[in-house]
Amino acid sequence: MNFALRAIRATTVSPFRRVTTINIQRRTMQIRSIPMWTGSHDNYAYVVIDDKTKDAMVVDPANPPEVLPVLKELIDSGKINFKGIINTHHHRDHAGGNAETLKQYPHTPVIGGKDCDQVTTTPKHNETFKIGEGINVRAIHTPCHTQDSICYFLEDGEEKVVFTGDTLFIAGCGRFFEGTAEEMHEALNNRLGKLPEDTRVYPGHEYTKSNIKFGKSVLDTPAVRDLVQFCEENEETQGKFTIGDELKHNVFMRVEDPEIQKATGQTDPLEVMQKLRDMKNNFRG
Ligand SMILES: [Zn+2]
């Protein structure tokens, strides 16, 4: 369980002129990761809960046998009010569980790209909606991996997270199945890369260990070595790194870095992006 707890220190002066410090624990949005197909596809679904209202949505509940028992427990115990499915893109290992989930919970809204199974609402680029009272969600269109790829930027007070599907992984990015290097450059470096640097990243897969192995083959810096070390000691990396971290250790977000230009033999950012993708596709580290 990954609760975001934030301690707010409030200092008050008592009538007896004694300074008293009290700690108020303010709980902001809660995110629960549900690993799916661990050891093969290594996907993640996520339950996002608004603490105040208990309203919750589930991101990419693709494998019902692994997701539905978790949802059922949360719903039946009164911990959440299940309000909707959010999809990052149409691939089966992301949107393939919608029908089964809707069978259990009919009339649930499905928010996602236009090609997602059973989709009911496709938000426009930069369109916003809420989860409960506290969580503001902004849809960020990132066509490339699929043309219907959407990332979701969530804010609850100071807390900021982004669900990136198969567009941005920790230290990597998705393959360009339906798009171009130009589109991925726009997605990573103009849209996601310009989010606040303290935004925590929740990707659609746990691919960090192999991503950073490739990353280290083209960029050997302290930030890259730190992530290699982190992956030696941790199986899961979702929510542990921010956009600011990605700007340092993700080679696809450093297409103007001279060391990466040298490794790819290219200088134009789009050529660097394409070459990095080709090199990663063929990498057998
Ligand atoms: Zn995909």
Automatic annotation (TrEMBL):
Its cofactor is Zn(2+). SMART domains: Lactamase_B. The keyword Zinc applies. Keywords: Hydrolase, Metal-binding, Zinc. Its EC number is 3.1.2.6. One of its GO terms (biological process) is methylglyoxal catabolic process to D-lactate via S-lactoyl-glutathione. InterPro entries: Clx_II_MBL (IPR035680), HAGH_C (IPR032282), Hydroxyacylglutathione_Hdrlase (IPR017782), Metallo-B-lactamas (IPR001279), RibonucZ/Hydroxyglut_hydro (IPR036866). Pfam families: HAGH_C, Lactamase_B. GO terms for molecular function: hydroxyacylglutathione hydrolase activity; metal ion binding. Residues 42-205 form the Metallo-beta-lactamase domain. Pathway: Secondary metabolite metabolism; methylglyoxal degradation; (R)-lactate from methylglyoxal: step 2/2. It catalyses: an S-(2-hydroxyacyl)glutathione + H2O = a 2-hydroxy carboxylate + glutathione + H(+). NCBIfam families: GSH_gloB (TIGR03413). PANTHER family: BETA LACTAMASE DOMAIN, TENZING NORGAY, ISOFORM C. Belongs to the metallo-beta-lactamase superfamily. Glyoxalase II family. This is hydroxyacylglutathione hydrolase. It comes from Orbilia oligospora.
